[in-house]
Amino acid sequence: MKLFCLIPSYNESGNLKELCLRLNSVLKRKKIDYKILFILQGDVKSIEILKIIQKSYPQIGFQYFPNALGIGKAYRTGFLKVPKKWTHVLTLDADLNHQPEELEKFFHALQKTNADIVIGSRFIKGGNFYDKRWWKRIGSQFVNQVINILLGITIKDKTSGYRLIKKEVIANIGLKVKEKGYPFYMEFILLAQKSRYSIVEVPINYVPRKWGKSKMGKIKTLIDYLAFFCKLLINS
């Protein structure tokens, strides 16, 4: 495996050092050839922090944008930066909601099933959603259930951003995803299923952030998902 880690980061300077240290520790222990690319947005302090970390970890790189791109556009920007030699792409949040130490589950699932996409799921047996924001927990479960009803999809956590994806999938559908906001995660899975890529879920523990504030606005996110659902109904 040659692993390209792609991490959008908007005003997450207080989380970057811990995330880098923990993620690098896991990947070095597994003796995996890897590269980490941050799509930095907003706070220029993040640049200073990563430049210091790069002295010890040259595998880390970044591209900087002064304004927020939106999670979908940030990932599409990153997808264009994945060189051909890499076999897999890892995506995860920069706010430490996702635990790098749980990557072992992803690697085990990949070895066992050879799935095209492995999703870290909060909603299967063994998974936990410890976020203090009740509205996010309920909202995530709601939008997943709506899509299951509309399209008959069995994946439990289509909005999880913790994913291990074969490079082939990124090359074929990564730039076809149009959503700029959080529905990007769900649209990616829908396109993957239409293309008959295999998907498995592994349980993860989604924990509250230690530093900073969430960038997920309740009203904006609700509007984005309602618009996404309307598009699905029109095109179904």
From TrEMBL:
Domain of life per record: Bacteria
Organism: Candidatus Gottesmanbacteria bacterium RIFCSPLOWO2_01_FULL_39_12b
Glycosyltransferase 2-like domain location: 6-173
Protein name: Glycosyltransferase 2-like domain-containing protein
GO molecular function: dolichyl-phosphate beta-D-mannosyltransferase activity
InterPro entries xrefs: DPM1-like, Glyco_trans_2-like, Nucleotide-diphossugar_trans
Gene3D superfamilies: Spore Coat Polysaccharide Biosynthesis Protein SpsA, Chain A
Pfam families: Glycos_transf_2
Keywords: Glycosyltransferase, Transferase
Family: Belongs to the glycosyltransferase 2 family.
